[in-house]
Design goal:
Blueprint (H helix, E strand, L loop, with lengths): L1 H10 L3 H17 L3 H5 L2 E8 L5 E3 H14 E16 L2 E14 L3 E16 L2 E15 L14
Parallel strand pairs: 1-6
Antiparallel strand pairs: 1-2, 3-4, 4-5, 5-6
Length: 153
């Protein structure tokens, strides 16, 4: 175990840093209105399940997010990974995402999303296969959101 830890420390970023970088890249693609780059993170069989337990297909999920990206004037926030576990070609990531959006027509949204993503490794790398949000609170006006903490998850 100590040898494996030393190898990771010498050869590159920690597991947590590697996965945080993936989430930072997803959020960057979203907030900079890059729909193709954003879509590339999600597998063809991707399914989103929200707190209502209603499943949403990849196409519907991307269509909704592309509309949001197209009207996005400003986005602030951070996705904080709380836990990442690997099991062969699958990874599960628990996260907290606090965000504030300014959209066209002076619409402001802020919210907190708590969820778990299941990633799958394939011939073309890692892709999100399934997302399940246990909480997704959205407000309709700009607010000051405190940064997420691991204890709040």
């Amino acid at each position: 175990m100590l040898v494996a830890s030393l190898i990771v420390a010498v050869t590159g970023p920690s597991l947590a840093q590697q996965w945080q970088a993936r989430y930072d890249a997803v959020y960057h693609a979203f907030r900079s209105n890059q729909p193709k780059a954003f879509a590339a993170f999600f597998s063809r069989d991707y399914v989103y399940v929200g707190p209502s337990e209603r499943a949403i297909s990849r196409n519907d999920f991307l269509r909704f997010n592309q509309r949001t990206m197209a009207t996005l004037k400003d986005a602030k926030g951070k996705i904080l990974l709380v836990k990442v576990s690997l099991d062969g070609f699958e990874a599960k990531a628990d996260f907290v995402w606090d965000y504030q959006f300014s959209l066209a027509h002076e619409t402001h949204l802020h919210g907190r999303e708590l969820g778990t993503d299941t990633w799958r490794f394939g011939s073309d790398g890692w892709h999100v296969r399934h997302s399940h949000d246990s909480r997704n609170d959205v407000g309709g006006q700009r607010g000051n959101l405190a940064g997420p903490t691991r204890a709040q998850y």
